[in-house]
């Protein structure tokens, strides 16, 4: 990120898995900002779990794990073995340590999330990371919003995605490729193990037929899940639109960076 009249960056935003960028930024006195794609709450969970490894490792697999600032219980098996094997020689430990040190030496963190989804957990996130965080996502929607504005009246994104499947199915009746398409759906009334799902998938693949695999959620639970997904989708788009929460956070970040630049010059 640079001023329009300067080739000197006012910051470097780099992925959390590129810790070496901190050293490069320090050489030129450029603030490094971490980009986190994990989200706020998952990061809080991982951070709290890493500081409770002895406790988690002593639990039975079915016992609940209650972590600070996490509004629900987890099970021991919800975590990778790093958090419950209590192995101080685990190969991931040096990597995580390097990432944590790089974050500590960074200027701030931008997160691919938005206030309406994870705003309640930002305080715990910033306390854990000991730095500022800006929720500027979902980044995927920024370009989509611009494209929608350019092509206003052409329909929303969901309609476009749905039409792709319809067009593909229509082609099968028009002689484009094999004409048979297997529709695979199991609903939500029965539980399918991973092994069963894998066997069905292998069978479909061996049959050589084209298919559409659909996972459905039925009943009140499915209805509530779909309603929540639609509502969050609406809020996500509003967040990145002009004046939305993520748009404001991005402006706030730029203002903080420009103020820092002016004060240091």
TrEMBL record:
Keywords: Glycosyltransferase, Transferase. GO terms for molecular function: UDP-glucosyltransferase activity. Residues 224-246 are annotated as: Disordered. Belongs to the UDP-glycosyltransferase family. This is GLYCOSYLTRANSFERASE. It comes from Salix koriyanagi.
